[in-house]
Amino acid sequence: MSHPLFDLAGRKALVTGAGRGIGRTLAIGLAQAGADVALADIDPSQAAEAKAQIEGLGRRCALLQADVTDLGQAERMVAEAARALGGLTILVNNAGTNIRKRVEEITEEDWDKVVDLNLKSCFFIARRAAEEMKKAGGGKIINIASLMAWSVFRSPHGHTYGPYASSKGGLVSMTRALAMDWVKANIQVNAICPTFIETALTQAVKEDAALYGAICQRTPMGRFGRMEELVGPCIFLASAASNLVTGISLLVDGGWHAG
Ligand SMILES: NC(=O)c1ccc[n+]([C@@H]2O[C@H](COP(=O)([O-])OP(=O)(O)OC[C@H]3O[C@@H](n4cnc5c(N)ncnc54)[C@H](O)[C@@H]3O)[C@@H](O)[C@H]2O)c1
Q1: Is residue 164 annotated as a catalytic residue, yes or no?
Q2: Considering the entire predicted model, what is its pTM?
Q3: Which of 17, 109, 148, 205 is deepest in the core (most CB within 10 A)?
Q4: Best of 69, 99, 151, 199 to mutate for ligand 1, by most ligand atoms within 8 A of CB?
């Protein structure tokens, strides 16, 4: 039997970018730990199978369509999730993207695309979600940042991912700020900073032998992470097991920052 501190029965979670990749895997993981889950995505058709899987576990599941960079849609998404699940006590701000270009090639449009999605949307979604969490007496907000919030990786092609690193570094700072805003409201706000994970977002990286090799060589564990390896950290930060933890960024980086 699992430890009761990690039991999410009765918790109500919203996961953004849950159509595929890390978001979908985390949503299923939260449901396996007992939570009802709302899956939100700009393209929710991708999440139909995950919905069936979650319902198969006996949990409530809602599928929501929203472009989270549109603040009206983002706030509506939070309200709809709370309505569908009967409240909201967990938010996973996961939807995110990256653009791989040399610094000289990055346009204002590129910057806005990455920073609006990875940083700005997370602030407004968290703020609206906190209103729902206060009604429930508290909650957990988990922001999916990146190891690039903490260190620069210069790819063999000369990319340092400036907009992405800026957005994820901002997300780590925002995590601390919101943790303090809501520390008395019993809302814990934390971030997870993963290493490179095998998903559609990094498929092109994997197919680039020089880049893939450089990353594996730089990572002490010598490999990319698997999406399932983020589920445990997410359940920890979503559960009563982390009630004394707020404002932190949990590195899940295969040893990147140790050596
Ligand atoms: N894959 C990695 O190596 C890695 C490493 C560290 C952090 N991360 C972070 O993890 C998160 C998920 O990454 P992933 O690899 O699963 O990405 P992914 O591209 O596979 O999935 C992202 C999901 O977000 C959705 N999405 C995109 N724009 C959206 C929008 N405007 N509104 C709503 N949904 C939108 C997409 O439809 C997709 O389902 C991102 O924040 C990413 O920065 C990924």
Answers
A1: yes
A2: 0.98
A3: 17
A4: 199
The answer, yes or no, to whether any atom of ligand 1 lies below 6 A from the CB of 201, is: yes
Start-to-end C-alpha separation, the chain: 36
Query: In CATH, what number does 4-199+227-249 get?
Result: 3.40.50.720
Whose CA is closest to 147, among 99, 77, 90, 194?
194
**What percent of the chain is modeled with pLDDT above 90?**
98
Domain extents in the chain: 4-199+227-249
Report how far apart, in Å, the C-alpha atoms of 161 and of each of 23, 149, 239 are: 22, 11, 33
Determine the pLDDT at residue 2: 85
Length of the chain: 259
Among the listed residues 164, 224, 236, 256, the single catalytic one is 164
Closest CA to 143 of 194, 182, 217: 194
Q: How far apart are CA 79 and CA 75, in angstroms?
A: 6
At residue 122, φ and ψ (nearest 5 deg) are -65, -35
The yes-or-no verdict on residue 1 having pLDDT over 80 is no
**Both tokens assigned to 119:** 């940083």
